[in-house]
Amino acid sequence: KIRTTKRNIANAFSHCGEYQKAIDIYDQLINTAHDELEKASLKNNKSNSLSLLGKYEEAYKTVREAYQTRKEILGEKHLITINTLYNMANILANLHKFKDAIDMYEIAYIERKEKLGEQNDDTLRTLSSKAITYFYAGEINEALRILQEVYKIMSSKYKQDDLRVVTVLNNLAKVYNAKGESEKALSIAEKVYDVRLNTLGHLNADTLTTASLLGNIYLKLGRKEEGRQILEDTLKKAKKVGYDSGQSFIVETNDLLKAI
């Protein structure tokens, strides 16, 4: 019961943006884990917190250890193993190893589609993640095609302010902005930001990611001072939380400010 309580506290810290506090508790639990599967589960959780802090190299090392353990004990097609593979793909995408990430997403998508169904949330989340990785790899039209497909299904299942729908909308706004449809992107991103701000708080990584996107869109629309102000405010908030400078939205925000 004490271990479960500690783990729940760590999960809560991670959820509210206190990632280092979560990592410290996960480390304590990993060092006293009862068996290898429990250790792998804790490492998987720890890797998520490390990734959210922007410590991608350490996160990848940690999640890879979790994946290897789960693969050896549960098998490579077990859903728990596939979930870890998906997390590993997310981290590789943040490390800009896009091809490797896309290949892993495809494996995860095939297994989740077969076991969970085409319209399952995890299946759709895998498609959405693969799409935004295509975007960062420069394949914008393929990213848009997949995201529109995912959005159509998600919006038929959930309300527009559901965080699952909002994540897809955030990615769509990125793509539209890159394609030069910045007014359309702005309309979407403003709604996404409001939902994330009210649901997750102003210091959450997802909220700050959308804030950075808004700054980018304002710059594209020629609203230079508004864009600069949002981007600078985003960095101040990120510093307050203690996000690593390698965190994707921080790198993008810094690049945008340098280009002004």
Summarize it.
With 260 residues, this protein is mainly α. The chain is 82% helix and 0% strand.
List keywords for this structure.
single chain, 260 residues, mainly alpha, 13 helices
Structural commentary:
- The longest helix is centred in the first third of the chain and has 19 residues, at 56-74.
- Helix 9 (163-178) runs parallel beside helix 11.
- The chain has helices at 2-15, 19-31, 36-53, 56-74, 79-94, 98-116, 121-136, 140-157, 163-178, 182-200, 205-220, 224-241, 248-259.
- With 260 residues, it is mostly helical.
Overall, the morphology is: globular
Unreliable sequence segments? none
What's the main sheet like?
none
Instruction: Determine the N-to-C terminus distance.
Output: 54 Å
SSE pattern: HHHHHHHHHHHHH
Radius of gyration, in angstroms, nearest whole number: 18 Å
Helix vs. strand class: mainly alpha
Count of runs of 4 or more consecutive helical residues = 13
**What is the mean predicted local confidence, pLDDT?**
95
Quaternary organisation: single chain
Count of β-strands: 0
Strand content: under 5%
Helix content: over 70%
